[in-house]
Amino acid sequence: MIDEHKSPHDFETTCQRLGDAVAANGFGLLHTHDIHGTLNAKGVDFSPQCRVFEVCNPKRAAEVLAVRMDLANALPCRIAVYEREGDVIVSMIRPTDMLAMLSDDAKLASVARDVEQTMDRMLTETVAA
Question: Which domains does the chain have, with CATH numbers?
Answer without folding.
Answer: 2-127 (3.30.310.70)
